[in-house]
Design a protein that fits this description.
The complex is a heterodimer of chains A (142) and B (239). Chain A is built from three helices and six strands. Chain A is an alpha+beta fold and 142 residues long. Chain A has a single domain, classed as Sufe protein. Chain: A, CATH 3.90.1010. The longest helix of chain A is centred in the last third of the chain and has 21 residues. The relative contact order of chain A is 0.23. About 42% of the residues of chain A have low confidence. Chain B is of the alpha+beta class and 239 residues long. Chain B has a single domain, classed as T-fold. In chain B, strands 1, 2, 3, 4, 5, 6, 7, 8 and 9 form a nine-stranded mixed sheet that branches. The longest helix of chain B is centred in the N-terminal third of the chain and has 16 residues. The C terminus of chain B is likely disordered. The chains are: A alpha+beta (142), B alpha+beta (239). Strand 6 of chain A pairs parallel with strand 4 of chain B, so a sheet runs across the interface.
Chain lengths: 142, 239
Amino acid sequence: MRRAVLALLVTVVAVVLLARYETTPPVTRSPDDPRRPPAIASPEPTPDGSVSALGPALVTPFSAIQVKATLKDGRLVGVETVALSGDGPHTDALNARAEPILREAALRSGSADVDVVSGATSTSEIWIESLRGAIREARRAG
Amino acid sequence: MPVEHVMGMHVRVEGAIDAGRVFGWLRWVDATFSTYRADSEISRLGRGELDDPHPLVREVLARCEALRRETDGYFDARAGGRLDPSGYVKGWAVERAAAFGRGRFLIDAGGDVVLRGAWRVGIRHPHERGRLAAAITLADCAVATSGAYERGPHVVDPHTGRPASGLASVTVVGRDLGTADAYATAAFAAGDPRWVARLAAMAIAGDRVFTTPAWPRSGTRRARRSTRRPSARALAGRS
């Protein structure tokens, strides 16, 4: 598990840098935009001993993504996308495809265990970055 | 791990490779081959203003012409009506960038990948929710995927001038990324999974997934002669 998490961290360090290299400015949204992702909430311990936390809400020129990770005894036991929005039907359709693909991989293995996706998009990479942040927050709280 | 936006895509490197030299090389390639820069050698060649192109430009154009013949015209650097070898240049440049690494590393260029050593590779499913089309361990090879999912169809059938249809995506595993990418593009344009039958390839059409006998199914595969030319005329059914 530790190795898997380490691999995930290594993978997503790239995405932090990737985000910095976006050449198009992020889409600005008005505060009352219903698609605006929620702010990062505090990690929530639960009666069964698991800890959930949200990753950072990451906005690309085309979409906004926020991922919630649940850890129990240091193991990743749940991943949920709590905010995923785009700027049009095309983006929404794209996200609908991109999001569950990585979600399934993360739940099945306890972590995102592919090193690279052929045919990948920045949307899926952003999703991994938010997942990484969520895991980090949950660990900090757990 | 270092990531840079170059040649219109995100390029990520991981492992034992000199990222600075990789990105420096790719920036040179972009300045030389970009069709978006009026002063690039390719743009000047296209306008007939350059008589003595760089040796690497000649190498790329010669390879594009060979690929056009090998693929029965389905890969064509002039498909859009002007000289644009971008479809080959990206894979060619990334493959050459592997010279800046030693041991185990990968270069991910917008979903087209060069691997040294063993890595776990997911193949994106083009339309089935919640699925990767495959997850395989590969070593010492290149993986290229051509598909319609990101920006709509971006491959034009050179024979009709219309957007390619028939296949949702094609993934080719081979020794050389430029060649694998060109064949994936050609197969996608041809729209027929039989076209990749002799390659290590996965083609998806509608709700059907076609994998070829050479497609790696489990364990670690190293690319063999999987980017050799198919008998394109026969496979494409255009004889």
